Amino acid sequence: MTENAPPLAGVVGWPIAHSRSPALHGHWLARYGIAGYYIPIGIRPQDFEEGIRALPKLGFRGVNLTIPFKETVLGMADSISDRASLIGAANTLTFREDGSIYADNTDGIGFLESVREAAPHWSPKSGPALVLGAGGAARAVISALLTSGAPEVRVANRTRQKAEMLAEHFGGRLTLVDWARAGDGTDGAHIIINTTALGMTGRSPLNIDLSAAPAEALVVDVVYNPLETEFLKNARARGLIGIDGLGMLLHQAVPGFESWFGRRPEVDAALRQAVLPE
Ligand code: NAP
Prior knowledge:
Strand order of the largest sheet: 2-1-3-5-6-4
Number of strands: 12
Bound molecules: NADP nicotinamide-adenine-dinucleotide phosphate
Helix content: 25-40%
Strand content: 15-25%
Shape: globular
Oligomer: single chain
């Protein structure tokens, strides 16, 4: 790294063209007048390690990672945060002065911050949570809930075996609910989170019976394209508070920007507008 070159960061994936991260970080760079750049970087899976190792030498201070590299990067990182280890994946790399690679995962805190922003009265400790799904987003959400004191985390997933593997991973601290009876898991739940891909543009909607959910339950959808999913519409129609997935996407980006560009950025309405799916 050199003091004579502008700071660089980016997002690495394959494919990469549809990432919203360049718009997100580009907005902050312009807003704070930082003479740096954040770019999409496509690296073929077979070239991943070599490509990542080259980035610090080119002036990159770090990168975000997306599909398909979030898990594989743990095999090459020089140090890994506790939360990335717990989740089993990293979305944020910081390159140290000596070229070593620090891997972190900010999806979980992005989730927590987005819920706190939308519902400041909420605390993970306040009651049971129901997580729908058992993929990468679910791991981040579940680890954030467990490490911040949720008294009970229920998980329902279409493929039960994956939910069982997750329960083992988290040391038996999850309560499994059958996917076919996921609505039962809403009974007494203070927060209900869709982490499945259902509801994304081009996919079927998520249909979960919310009639047993308490009136004060929060309903979160981590899907952000579209912002207003059928699941959220159903929740709002029942009078429940609905929270879309854009806030999580924006908040997960804060630690990376701060570590690469030296300024803690704000998540506000202008950023939301800049990053909204086209
Ligand atoms: P993933 O690891 O592939 O997991 C997909 C999950 O969706 C699995 O639990 C899978 O169940 C479930 N699923 C897929 N098709 C289904 C169907 N037809 N019926 C029932 N369940 C189905 O994906 P991911 O990385 O966790 O991402 C999931 C979603 O979260 C995506 O929409 C992604 O864009 C979003 N996301 C948002 C943020 C954010 O910042 N807002 C961050 C990360 C991810 P099975 O195990 O049965 O296959």
